[in-house]
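This part of the workshop introduces the protein records we will be handling. Each record describes a single protein and holds just a pair of labelled lines. Instead of coordinates, the fold is spelled out as a row of discrete tokens. To make this concrete, we reproduce a full record directly below:
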Amino acid sequence: MFEENLVLAFSLTALAGLSTGIGSFIAFFTRHTNKAFLSMALGFSAGVMIYISFAELMPEALEMLEPVHGPNMAAWIMTAGFFAGIFFIGIIDRLVPEHENPHEARKVEEMHQGIDRGKMRRMGVFAALAIAIHNFPEGMATFFATLADPALGMAIAVAIALHNIPEGIAVAVPIYYATKSRAKAFWLSLATGLAEPLGALIGFLILRPFMTPTTMGFVFAFIAGIMVFISLDELFPAAKEYGTGHLAIYAVVAGMLVMAVTLLMLM
């Protein structure tokens, strides 16, 4: 049903995931954190994800479900899928130790401060594991959206790639400080992004025998729930921490506006 877009879906998912490597390059080759850029990237990503979730994924889910279940039951299934996605990513988030949270804003300057190396190594490893766990559902989101609608999948891939840049910094900064090895920090940072195509592959193999309109409608709503939670719980708070004044919310609105205009032009 959707398998003609398989190669593109895996490619976009992999590219979005591997953008964590961009974050490590920023950490290695700059002396000061460009907080305005990171704030705008995170806020823009949140705006894109929130807009796509409510303007595209939820209506798409209803469109798939209504012919099979009728308007009333379709709405119930869509709503159940949306909150199931929120609970799913919320449970994953609870598995991450709060004091090692990789979504706290990290700065390049931390590599040059006198912080205990053992603590920094532990922080980097925990950040890598936590980001890899988070990247599983993000990979599924990019992959399944691309299967159904390549233009939509591309937009989600760009949003996820933008927010993976600060995640790459969150891994690279403490690992580099602890080991003084750019190679180790870069490869560990990059490896966390591989969880996205891996998550896509596992999700596809599990769901492939059940790819009916009902399943895909539920999955689309599920993905919307995941993206809204990530945006509100992780991206926007980090964007505010990096930014000053109203910069973060301006970036959120810009992400929504760019996404809205892009989708209108593709109609």
About this structure: Residues 3-266 form one domain. The chain has one domain: 3-266.
